[in-house]
Amino acid sequence: MKKFGFVLSVLMVIFIVIAVSPGIRDELHWRWASSNNHIKDYKGYLESWPRGRHVAQAKSSIDELYWKEANRAYTVVSFKRYLSRYPAGNHAAQAEANIIALQVAVNQDTQPIEGTVETVDETAGTLKIRTPMDELEVLRITDDTFWLNKKEINES
Q1: Could you list the pLDDT tens digit for every one of the 156 residues in the chain?
Q2: CA distances in angstroms from 36 to 25, 52, 92, listed in the order given
Q3: CA-angle at 117, arms to 116 and 122, nearest 5°
Q4: How far apart are CA 3 and CA 9, in angstroms?
Q5: What is the DSSP letter of 45?
Q6: Residue 61: how many CB atoms within 10 A of its CB?
Q7: Residue 24: other Cβ atoms inside 10 A
Q8: What is the Cα–Cα distance from 32 to 53, expressed in whole angstroms?
Q9: Among 19, 26, 22, which residue's Cα sits nearest to residue 46?
C-alpha cells in the first residue's frame, strides 16, 4: 500500500509540473500539432503560444501546407489564394510563375497577359515572355501543361 501511495504522489507531482510549466506545455502542444500536420493544429499552436519556441516552424509548416493545397488544385485561383495568404511566402515566386503559365495556357490566343511574348518556337514548343521584372521561358509539355524556367534579363 505504501508503494501505491508513493507512485500516486510521484504521478501527481509530475502532473502538477506539466500543468504549471509553460515551457513543457508549449513543447507538448507543438509535438501534438506537428505530429498531426494540419493547418488547424498549427494555427491552434500559434493562438495558444504566440511567442512560443516553435512559432517560426509553425508558420513555415502552414505555408508548406497551403502550398501543397495550391499545387493540388493547380489553378490560377488556388495560386492567387496562396499569394493572398503568403505574399512573401517560401513559394511566392513559383506561385506567380504558375499563374502566368496558366494564363498563357488558357488565354494564349484570346487575351493578353501581363508581359510581352518575344519569341515563339513551335518546333521546340517554347515561348519567351518578358514581364516587368524578368523573362520567363515557358516550355510546352502538352496542350494544356506548361513548366516555367526563370531567366535573368540580358540588358546587353
Answers
A1: 677 777 777 777 766 655 667 788 899 899 999 999 999 999 999 999 999 999 999 999 999 999 999 989 888 889 999 999 999 999 999 999 888 888 877 655 444 445 444 444 444 445 555 554 444 444 443 333 444 444 433 343
A2: 17, 18, 25
A3: 175
A4: 10
A5: H
A6: 19
A7: 12
A8: 14
A9: 26
